[in-house]
Amino acid sequence: MATISSLGIGSGLDLNGLLEQLESAERQQLTPIVAQQQSYQAKISAFGQLESALDSLRQAATELSEVDGFADVKSSLSGDGLSATVGDEAVVGSYEIDITQRARSYSIATLGVADKEGTLGAGTISFTLGNGDSFSVAVTENESSLEGIRDAINAADNGVVASIVNDGSAQPYRLVLSSAETGTEAAIASVDFGTGGLGDHLSLDAATEVSAQNAQLTVNGIDITSQGNRVEDAIQGVTLDLEETGSVSLEITRDTSAIEGKIKGFVSAYNNLQNTISSLTSYDQESGTAGVLIGNYTVQSVESRLRSTLTDVLTSSGAFKSLSDLGITLEVEGTLSLDEDALGDLVAEQLDDLTDFFAGVADEDGLADRLDTVLGAMLDDDGTLDSVTSGLESSIEMLQERYEDTEARIDSTIERYRTQFAELDSLIAQMNSTSTYLTQQFEALSAQLGQSD
């Protein structure tokens, strides 16, 4: 049977169009599979939103789970002479600070030479520091210019810094040697250029010596000496940077606003979580639109466990037993409301009791610790959310395999249709050809019969 390269050429029928319609109808089998995949993917995304909100709540609870979380302090300075940085270990107190002397580094210069690039001869320069450390710098003939000596000392990086100054005289170039740090321990106690070579051309100018000195100050009448102008141990948890001599008053007070902010942040994080859950499980009657996780058991379980933890009465020995004792109440719609005035009074007057409620007493867990345990079961690896999302991902993979199998079956069916249509097209073309031939023969016969008459 003759072959036809394009469907419909032989028969004159729109076989290509018919094949496309059949293929479109067959591919409708894929639509519910894709829809189910999209549904599962939407749920994974929704659980991602839920996880993010839960993680934010966990972080807010963590800030309340340690005693240090309620020890925030702030500082105020009056007077000039220093800046203060208050760390986590600082304690409340008032400090009168008198700075009588700032720390200073040591320096001394050599007598001048005429050419800073001219060689002075090989040698060894020996240094001894105020703390007893000593070191030597060897200088070769080729490196023995003033610039070469400077570079060799600086490359040694042993606590001495070298530079060159030009004093404008006939022999203007001087090598200046300075201690890298302030204080008497870092000071240069001695410099020896040796004899011969380098030692014949360089010597110290005693008139240029600037002696090192330590910082001296008093804190509430206590004398303090520091090798540097940054003083870290004079006041617990406070770093002082001395800028000039003078008197300064430092006041360290409890930062009640920061502590209140952490509790407000906890309430806000929980309410944001509730808003997220409401959004994912809501139903709009007007539009008929349902949340992605409406009726989902996992979400209901998460919400129930959290609500139970927050409303449980603590059995610890602390003064407060429940959030309501702090002015934090659970509303009908599931969010928390906070009495900010009541919280402010508690932070100001019962901070220790507030700390015990959230951070715990001795071996007894506080609310923040209990909440972290519950949230950990939800958020940690192999936890509630990890398990449910892993199950959804597995379902998507199975649907993808089903999609590919169905698509392969559809392709096979369409190819079978294509082959059958091609055969039909050839058959009709052959029949048309035979019909045309017979018609021509009958017409010729009729013509002959007519002539004979």
Automatic annotation (TrEMBL):
UniProt key word Nucleotide-binding: no
Magnesium in keyword set: no
Domain of life assignment: Bacteria
InterPro entries linked to this entry: Flagellin_hook_IN_motif, FliD, FliD_C, FliD_N
Localization of this protein: Secreted; Bacterial flagellum
Broad class of the protein's primary localization: secreted
Annotated keywords: Bacterial flagellum, Cell projection, Cilium, Coiled coil, Flagellum, Secreted
A UniProt-annotated Pfam family: Flagellin_IN
GO biological process, one term: cell adhesion
GO cellular component, as recorded: bacterial-type flagellum filament cap; bacterial-type flagellum hook; extracellular region
Coiled-coil annotated residue ranges, if any: 389-416
Classification via PANTHER family: FLAGELLAR CAP/ASSEMBLY PROTEIN FLID, FLAGELLAR HOOK-ASSOCIATED PROTEIN 2
Similarity-based family: Belongs to the FliD family.
Assembly with partners or alone: Homopentamer.
Function: Required for morphogenesis and for the elongation of the flagellar filament by facilitating polymerization of the flagellin monomers at the tip of growing filament. Forms a capping structure, which prevents flagellin subunits (transported through the central channel of the flagellum) from leaking out without polymerization at the distal end.
Protein's recorded name: Flagellar hook-associated protein 2
Taxonomic lineage: Bacteria, Pseudomonadati, Pseudomonadota, Gammaproteobacteria, Cellvibrionales
